[in-house]
Each structure stands twice: as structure tokens, then as C-alpha cells.
Amino acid sequence: MADKDGNKVAKNYRTDVEFGRNGGFHVKGMEDVDWGMKSRLSKIFQPESGNTVMLAFDHGYFMGSTAGLERLDLAMPPLIPHVDVLMATRGALRSCISPQYNKGIALRCSAGSSMMDDDLSHEVIAVDIDDAIRMNASCMAIQTFIGAPGEKSSIENLCKTIDAGNRYGIPTLGVVAVGKDMERTPAFFKLATRMLAEFGAQIIKTYYCDDFEEITAACPVPIVVAGGKKVTEKDALTMAYLSMQGGARGLDMGRNIFQSDCPVGMAKAIGAIVHNNANVNDAYDLYREEKGV
Question: Which residues contact residue 88 at a Cβ distance below 8 angstroms, ignoring those fewer than 6 apart?
């Protein structure tokens, strides 16, 4: 049995060395998956940059009507042209988003208690594979609570979804959950992201933290960074820039876009960082230009 305190030899992440299996496909670690899965991954990660901008508006599945998302039918359409992927529930997509937009879809497939519950970690699989196929999902998103009371059941949800997705060529996005009492350290994120990748998730969503380049180096599939709570536009762009410089392959922004005083400007600014390697000041200028400042 492995020593729970880790190996006694110091770890060497070799952060200056590129991923060792860079072949002809642009998504990390996915060189040998089948054609259908590569096709879906290419709707998520732009072939030109290898990166993605996701727009998360799945908050209502446990928070209800979030500020900025009171009217999904009005808030989302202006933002869609400036992102690559929509991360949402099937109910929101079917009712509020035109299928003519033809963007990548990260379909929220897990659900559990509302935010009124002290423990959100006991989720279930809320969308079966048949409906994911009907929704033309580019990937299926499953929340996974490492170190929480519901850890075992959430890992089971993830693994069942990965198995179902593999049968039909649909990637699984493993979302590293961080409850209010959960650890948020580099050691935790190294553990959680690596576990989800080892279980077979093709994409991992997590949070930015110190030593982030070690986390991305140790994870053999692409990491997308969550936007998290609303902060100032400059702070959100700084986090986005540091994430990409640290080896992330994209951002999944929600509140830092739709709760901004200029959501379209923020979407454009995040896209410039993710796809064009813009620095923070240039991206902030894009945001201010759209805002008319």
C-alpha cells in the first residue's frame, strides 16, 4: 500500500518540459482516443490555439436565480459569439439557447442538494447518456468532491459517466469541487486533479493556486480553470493570465463575465488572453474599449 504521506524522495515535476506525447492532435493526452471523441474535443478546444473559453451559467442547478442570470434568455445570447463552449444544464439549454449557435456544449450532468444544505457533496448522476446524446453534448460535466463526506459516491458518479461517455465517444469533464470547509491548497489540487485524470476524465476543471505549473505538469489531460466568485475585472484578468502562463488550457468563467459591468468586454478580454496570449493590460484595455471608457 502506498505511503499516505507520500514518497520520501522529493518530487520533480519538470515544469520546463512539454508533455511527452505531443503528436498530431492538439488536446493534451488525447492522441489515441477515437475519431468521435476527438471531434467533440475539437469543439471545446480551438485547434489553432489548443485552448478554450467556457461560459459557465449552470449556477441555477443549486443556487436558483443567480444575480446576472435572472433572465438567461436575455443575458446569454450577446456573450455566445465571444466564447467557445457553453457550460449549462439541459433545462437552460433547451429553453433559452438557440441550437443555431452551434457552440461546444459542456452539459452539467450531476446534481444534488440546494445551497441551503450544509453539505453539497452528495450528488447523483442527473442526466443519462441517452439525453446527453440527444443534447449533442461535447462533454459531460460531473462534480467530484475529493475529501468531502460524499467523496465515494461522487467518484462513482464520475466513473460511471466516464464509462458511458467512452462507449459513445463523449468526453467527461471532471469538476474538482471545493466546499466551504474543504482544503484549497496546492497539495489538495495536485491530489484531486491527478485522481480525476487517473479515473479517466478527459478534461479537468479546477481552481488556480500557488505552484499551479506543478499541478498542470502532473496532470496528463488538459486543465481548465474555474473563474470562481466575482472579483474586480483587473483581478479576474490577472488570474486568467497567470492560469494560462501556468499551463492551463482554458478558462471556465461565469460570474466574472455575466456579473461584470460590461460582460461582452470581459468575454472578449478573456478570449484575448486564452487564444492570443494577451497580457493583463492589453486584455483590460479591450474590456475598457468595449465598455466605452
Answer: 56, 57, 58, 97, 105, 106, 107, 108
Distance CA 8, CA 3 (A): 9
Cβ atoms within 10 Å of 66's Cβ, excluding its own:
17
Query: Side chain identity at 150, as an amino acid letter?
Result: G
pLDDT at 88 over 70: yes
Give CA–CA dist 196/288, Å, rounded.
38
109-130 pLDDT per residue, tens = 999 776 656 677 788 999 999 9
**Whole-model pTM above 0.85?**
yes
Inform me whether the pLDDT recorded for 203 exceeds 80. yes
Give catalytic residue positions: 205
What's the confidence (pLDDT) of residue 99?
Answer: 94
Closest CA to 212 of 191, 232, 241, 242: 242
Domains of the chain, residue spans: 35-291
35-291 has which CATH code? 3.20.20.70
- What is the residue-wise DSSP string for the chain? ---TT--SSPP---TTS--TT--SSSSTT-TTS-HHHHHHHHHHS-TTTS-EEEEE--THHHH-S-TT-TTHHHHSTTTGGG-SEEEE-HHHHHHHS-GGG--EEEEE-EE---TTSS-----EE-S-HHHHHHTT-SEEEEEE-TTSTTHHHHHHHHHHHHHHHHHHT--EEEEE---TTS--SHHHHHHHHHHHHHHT-SEEEE---TTHHHHHHH-SS-EEEE--S---HHHHHHHHHHHHHTT--EEEESHHHHTSSSHHHHHHHHHHHHHH---HHHHHHHHHHHHT-
Chain position carrying cell 468586454:
265
